[in-house]
Amino acid sequence: MSEHDKILVRILRGTSDANIPFEGMRSLLRSLGFQERIRGSHHIFTKEGVEEILNLQPKDGGKAKPYQVKQVRQVILKYRLGGLD
User: Fold this and answer.
1) What is d(CA 57, CA 81) in angstroms, rounded to the nearest whole number?
2) Among 32, 55, 75, 85, which is 20 to 30 Å from 44 by CA?
3) 58 in helix, strand or coil?
4) What is d(CA 5, CA 82) in angstroms, rounded to the nearest whole number?
5) What topology is assigned to 3-78 in CATH?
6) Domain-wise residue ranges, the chain
7) What does the buried/exposed string (b/e) look like for 24-51 if buried means 16 or more CB atoms within 10 Å of the residue's CB?
8) Torsion angle of alpha carbons 12, 18, 20, 25, nearest 10°?
9) Alpha carbons 56 and 24: distance in angstroms, whole number
């Protein structure tokens, strides 16, 4: 299982939203076809065919913010991204 798959499973499982590495989530979104634009500490992800714009910021310690992990999970599930069964 690749590192992207491991992060994807952790995000979809939803049991450890406070412990998802921000860089891992960024890398996962890019691998799912999202375009990243950076404005200061804001990482803005867009993808053709996806209405939502994901505006992510890391929290101290290099982790993703739990509410932002939840937003990413909702987008992945809504658009059936990720390719895992």
Assistant:
1) 21
2) 85
3) strand
4) 8
5) Metal Transport, Frataxin; Chain A (3.30.920)
6) 3-78
7) bbbebbebbebeeeeeeeebebebeebe
8) 80
9) 13
